[in-house]
Amino acid sequence: ATLTTHPDITHAAVTVHHDHHTGDRLVGYVVPRDGARLDPARVRALVADRLPDYMVPSPITVLDRLPLTASGKVDRRALPAPVFPVPQYRAPVTVAEGVVAGVFADVLGRERVGLDDDFFTLGGNSLLATQVVSRLGAAMDARVPMRVLFEASSVQALSTWLESRAAAGAHTPLVPRTRPEHIPLSYAQQRIWFLNRFDPHSPVYNIPFAVRLSGTMDTAALLAAIADVVDRHETLRTIYPESKAGPHQVVVPAAEVSGGFATAAVTENELATRLLSMASSEFDVTTSVPVRAALFETAENEHVLAVVLHHICADGSSIAPLARDLMAAYTTRTHGNPPAWSAPTVQYADYTLWQRELLGSDDDPNSLLARQLTYWRTTLDGLPEQLELPGYRTRPVTSHRGRTHAFTIDAPTHRAAAELARQHTATVFMVLHTAFAVFLARMSGTTDIIIGTPVAGRGDPALDDLVGMFVNTLVLRTPVDGASSFTQLLTTVRETDLAAFEHADVPFERVVQALNPARSTTRHPLFQVMLVFQNQEHPKLELAGLTARIEDIDHTATQFDLTLTVTERVDRDGAARGLTAALTYAQDLFDENTVRGFADRFTRLLEAVVADPNSPVGDIDLLDPTEKQLILEDWNHTDHATTTDTLVSMFGAQVARTP
């Protein structure tokens, strides 16, 4: 409608064009009045004066007429493909340009990246950016701050920055280390180890998954393949006994582990119970390896493979390399051969030794650990002990019982969020973080909002295909002023997130230790609400002669009061198709209706802020029409029948009824 307000345009159409590089974008088509000459740039400028940027079509194509269907409507399928200005490919020339282009291509899965290509335009986000800066630091012997990638995101701009700072203090290289008699745990493992000793019966750190396999199964080959994978990854066969010096790693020979994998014939009715029992069973990480596997036969040519990993040995990003290795080993085992793979470049024990060397000692003020801890002490000083949300029950000693409410955010909102991020040199994660902070502030009536978020911690390429516990947790603090616009808060959040990512080497456990908050068995330290933006590889398990699909396990345990998990949905061309979201909540604190209301209000808030990001966030209406009717009308009815009764007569009547 805005296009047709131009005096020289008689007809117009706007549609969404899918591009596998840039995602979805609005494009426009216009028909001029007879004899008029249209300048698409001026037409676009007219529209841009009246609409927010993400609603302005680009490019605008001038047509003699719009194609119509038999019913007289615009035939959008018959519209010609828009012509975008395509920059000429310029190949990298210098060493630095070649390294940057190669890292971009590797992380983003691109065959070719040129000098003018931009990391974020090609599909990069803040989580993938952590891998880029780490790999560039290792390749160029220079420490690359996250902020630099956001401000110099093309190959040419970033390589120019790198060339000016060559040999400026890169990370210590990750290579195999000489192992001491007692191999220490990683910092993340230490906290999990202490929690396991504190409550060895808790399944909260179990990672269960199950796959239904239909078809002709070579059981012996599958069990041998599982043993091959356990042999390949030392962390799957490591125990963590205690000594006078503290817990340490002991790698168990593969032969002592493989005999523990079970097979059993069960009915379909028994399967769910067996899977839940397996997922909920405790691990004593001091005496037993942190992996459990079983193959259940439910019928002829129907099997379910169940695996439970303890978090001390793996994280969510470990599932993909685990699945790839299992597929490779099963394929070769069905032909009677062991897998002919090369050994991993490093093992998890090498990583733990490297991590301590990298961080140094907090007694050394120049160490990476000391410098980053100084940032976290300053940033998180005076942190509120906990966030109180409506619907909270009295906090008991936490049982970690969780439940999940799933919901979706539509494609137009997803596209608008991506466009808003692009306009502000931010990412979709940063937009979601800002929206979630505003939501929590509105729900809690507070302005100091603390949210945790995980980062993969796999910046070094040597860790790509390794099973292990590498994930770290960042604490993101956001002041939310209801008078601020969403774009103002997004600018603040962008700075907060970039600074946090730049100080992500120090483990969360050391941050907790440094801040020493008041401890409680009823809440998680430093933050109680988590935001997870999923971009890790979705594992695919394809075994020869078998059809595989994920089997649900009714097992939800949670460490936090509330966790918002968001996954981007894109089609095969990379076009935005909406967001899949889930709120996982502690059943001790919330009921299902409360959390369903949270999901509805968050969705409503996100739709509002991307539609009008310049309005004060305190003015956003979070209530739906039914809730408004209930609060403003139904609860405020003052009509009532009059009575001549007095307090004395009512008291007498009650005495008569119940003497």
UniProtKB/TrEMBL annotation:
Describe the location of the Carrier domain by residue ranges: 91-166
State the organism named in the record.
Rhodococcus opacus (Nocardia opaca)
Q: Which CDD domains match?
A: LCL_NRPS-like (cd19540)
PROSITE patterns with a match to the protein in the record = CARRIER, PHOSPHOPANTETHEINE
Q: Which cofactor does it need?
A: pantetheine 4'-phosphate
GO MF annotation terms: catalytic activity; phosphopantetheine binding
According to the lineage, what is the superkingdom?
Answer: Bacteria
Q: Keywords for this entry?
A: Phosphopantetheine, Phosphoprotein
Q: Which InterPro entries match?
A: ACP-like_sf (IPR036736), AMP-bd_C (IPR025110), AMP-bd_C_sf (IPR045851), CAT-like_dom_sf (IPR023213), Condensation_dom (IPR001242), PKS_PP-bd (IPR020806), PP-bd_ACP (IPR009081), Ppantetheine_attach_site (IPR006162)
> What is the protein name for this chain?
Carrier domain-containing protein
User: What Gene3D superfamilies would the database entry show?
Assistant: 3.30.300.30, ACP-like, Chloramphenicol acetyltransferase-like domain, Nonribosomal peptide synthetase, condensation domain
Which biological processes are named by the entry's GO terms?
amino acid activation for nonribosomal peptide biosynthetic process; lipid biosynthetic process; secondary metabolite biosynthetic process
One GO cellular-component annotation of the UniProt record comes to: cytosol
